[in-house]
Write a structure and sequence with these properties.
The chain is an alpha+beta fold.
Length: 742
């Protein structure tokens, strides 16, 4: 996460995880909140605590322990109240200022305060903020009561936040708490099995309001997308930009990298000054002492979620898988780290012509973020599961305090499925960049020169325009002066300096233009006391004086570094490099040669698929443990020593309804089939696997199941008997290397 450019780690504190049995708090092992926060401090990361007491997060009871529900009843809750309270209403009212409920919450907050003693910001610790409650739709007085209580028990932090998307009646007095917002490409919570229902298309369109009414429609239903009048006076911060999406049983939403990257860029364009994601790193529900911890219709919640897996199709997966959208976001974070201070105070402005609806694919989607003199043009021509045609003849005309800017010089075509940010009137090392038709990634000062790294915009010729403060130019393109502006056109992408300028002070400004694929493998790291730009398909984890390089069997990796070190070594062995533009490129060793053989032994075929029933919340009901007695079963046989199973993922390519992995009868993780493979990381279980039995169970998928899947994910031949098959298992190796340079 740190290597991906994240500065603040947000974490729920699920009450049921820590006090599943009343009066017995558990902060050990995976529940060790103090050690988790201490690790964040060690890594230089800030922490935002989402303390609840009600968290949701697809957790059982929204995180409330079962015993709490037996002692109280929901008074103000989302839509599940009708079921929760249909038979009995006794005890104190949950999520209200009922004294009995507040007394219980105080005990929880006291425990959290004890865990965080000495780790709060005021004590020099990393905890800078606290979210009170979550997705709350009742009177604001209750939230303020929880805030007062938190401070009374010692949870005194600089920033208090609340989720700002529920219902208008949660009107918070101005200045008491920061409202945080969100938005997803598509949700698992909708009460239908349609593709992209409602207003999800708006996640791919620039809009002036912050609230997103597509979030939690299972809880709040359809509501007006209208911000509170005072919203504009708060900084625009998000806590739930969709890093992916969890699958519910009835809605298996398959997320693509651009479904995450495009909305994040759009939110930045309309004013977001602190992108926050949900989820950024997927995980696994821990084992409970009494029950499982997943949300289900059986526990009076609107959706059935997988029992163990909470992978969320996140940039970093349940087992640490590094996915494509990790790199899209990481590139954007490089830009934010180097240019965010300039951009943060800029306002957002929308054009008069904006798309009229989800099927308006002809109107270009764009906006400007500017202080009136300088800024950035944001463009998006991507929409999830909707072909977006190229947009020919595009040229932007900006009316600024310091005159007009027209870019590009000649109309260009915006390519299908592209999105990008173009700068205008930005100072780069003492030169005024009037505009560029390429995207700034980051910068680096080296050898008295200022280097700026750009990403090529697909389909658009790279053009850079400078005012005449640039005294000289050396370029791979063609330079010409027009109306007092120096234009450099036809710039070629590569790892060499594409444009070299000289400032009036005699300083060199060097521009490097990377093609899009290379730009997504661009890193900025500290190594040996110097900043470097690295180009690699490996995952880089910078330490104080070396790089940990994770290389995978999926990709052959090299590492290119600028500036070039005098000497380099891998795991203590000298490493020779070769010149590649301004970089020095090194070949990284692949994963350990020792091979892991995996075979699947069929043990039983699946019985005829069950007819999928509809649950109490009007959607398909997930199978029970007993249903898996009728599943197809394979024994997974792994040939390899325990140490060879480190950093190994088994990737099962399968088709079925639900897949589960069991080790000695214990459920490890599970998957609602959505067309993607099912991953199982072996690291946590390596010693036990060799002495035990690993089973893969798959329930058959009926062609008439009342669930949402992408059309291409369904079985080719309609069948009510069901399909349960494994097409193959892939072994993904990884290796960690230690790269040092001097």
């Amino acid at each position: 996460m740190r290597a991906g450019g994240i500065d603040i780690v947000a974490t729920y504190v699920f009450w049921i995880h820590h006090e599943e049995i009343e009066g017995q708090f558990d902060f050990t092992d995976r529940r060790n909140l103090r050690e988790f926060v201490a690790l964040c401090r060690e890594l230089g990361l800030y922490v935002q605590m989402r303390c609840g007491p009600w968290c949701h997060g697809e957790c059982r009871n929204g995180g409330f322990p079962d015993w709490l529900l037996r002692k109280g009843h929901f008074a103000i809750v989302p839509a599940e109240a009708a079921v929760c309270d249909s038979e009995i209403q006794t005890g104190y009212a949950l999520r209200t200022d009922d004294p009995g409920y507040l007394a219980e919450v105080r005990r929880l907050y006291e425990q959290i305060a004890g865990q965080l003693h000495g780790l709060l910001w005021k004590d020099g610790g990393p905890v800078i903020g606290m979210q009170i409650e979550n997705e709350y739709s009742g009177p604001s007085e209750h939230i303020l009561s929880l805030k007062r209580m938190a401070r009374e028990v010692g949870l005194d932090v600089p920033i208090y936040t609340f989720t700002g998307w529920p219902l208008p009646r949660t009107k918070m007095p101005f200045g008491q708490m920061l409202p945080l917002f969100g938005g997803y490409a598509e949700g698992m919570w909708d009460r239908n099995i349609e593709q992209m229902p409602g207003g999800y298309w708006e996640a791919f369109s620039f809009k002036s309001h912050r609230i997103d009414s597509t979030i939690a429609t299972d809880h709040f239903g359809k509501r007006e997308e209208k911000d509170e009048n005072d919203a504009i006076h708060y900084p625009y911060i998000t806590c739930e930009l969709g890093g992916g999406m969890v699958n519910s049983y009835h809605r298996r939403v398959q997320i693509f990298a651009r479904d995450v990257a495009a909305p994040a860029l759009i939110k930045l364009g309309v004013g977001n000054s602190l992108p926050g994601y949900y989820m950024y790193h997927g995980g696994t529900n821990p084992d409970g002492k009494l029950t499982t911890f997943h949300e289900s219709q059986a526990t009076n919640y609107p959706n059935d979620i997988t029992v163990k897996s909470y992978d969320f199709q996140a940039p970093l997966g349940e087992f640490g898988q590094v996915r494509e959208h990790y790199h899209w976001l990481r590139r954007m974070h490089l830009f934010i780290h180097d240019y965010g201070e300039l951009m943060a105070p800029m306002s957002s402005m929308l054009p008069a012509a904006r798309p009229t609806g989800r099927d308006d694919t002809q109107t270009l989607r764009w906006c400007v973020r500017s202080n009136g003199s300088s800024g950035f043009v944001f463009v998006n021509n991507y929409q999830r599961l909707q072909p977006m045609p190229p947009k020919p003849g595009v040229q932007f005309q900006l009316h600024l305090r310091n005159g007009e800017v027209t870019l590009p010089a000649r109309p260009a075509t915006v390519a299908s499925d592209s999105f990008f940010i173009w700068p205008f009137h930005i100072d780069i090392g003492g030169v005024n960049l009037v505009y560029a038709t390429a995207e700034i990634i980051c910068n680096l000062d080296e050898g008295g020169a200022h280097y700026v790294f750009f990403a090529e915009t697909p389909g658009v010729p790279a053009e850079f325009a400078f005012d005449m403060t640039a005294k000289s130019v050396n370029s791979s393109g063609t330079a010409s002066e027009r109306d007092g502006v120096l234009h450099v056109e036809g710039v070629r992408a590569g790892l060499q300096v594409a444009i070299r300028l000289r400032t009036p002070a005699g300083r060199d400004v060097c521009i490097v233009l990377l093609d899009q694929e290379t730009s997504l493998s661009c890193w900025k790291v500290a190594l040996g006391g110097r900043k470097h730009i690295a180009i690699t398909a490996a995952t880089l984890l910078p330490e104080e004086d070396f790089l940990r390089c994770h290389v995978s069997s999926e990709v052959k990796s090299t590492l290119a570094l600028f500036p070039s070190p005098a000497k380099a070594e891998i795991d203590g062995k000298p490493l020779e490099g070769r010149d590649d533009g301004i970089f020095t490129r090194y070949t990284l060793p692949g994963p350990v040669a020792e091979h892991v053989n995996v075979t699947l032994e069929p043990l039983r075929e699946a019985d005829t698929a069950r007819a999928v029933p509809i649950g109490p919340f009007g959607v398909a009901l997930a199978p029970t443990d007993e249903d898996f007695e009728h599943a197809a079963v394979w024994r997974v046989q792994i040939d390899g020593h325990s140490n060879s199973l480190q950093n190994v993922i088994l990737r099962f390519h399968y088709m079925g309804d639900v897949a589960r992995a069991y080790l000695n009868g214990r459920l490890l993780t599970d998957d609602f089939y959505n067309g993607k493979p099912f991953d199982l990381g072996l690291d946590p279980y390596a010693p036990e696997i060799h002495a035990g039995e690993l089973l893969l169970k798959i329930l058959p998928l009926r062609s008439d199941a009342p669930i949402y899947l992408l059309p291409e994910a369904w079985p080719g031949q309609p069948t009510t008997e069901g399909t349960a098959e494994v097409k193959g298992v892939e072994v993904i190796h990884a290796r960690e290397l230690e790269f040092r340079a001097s």
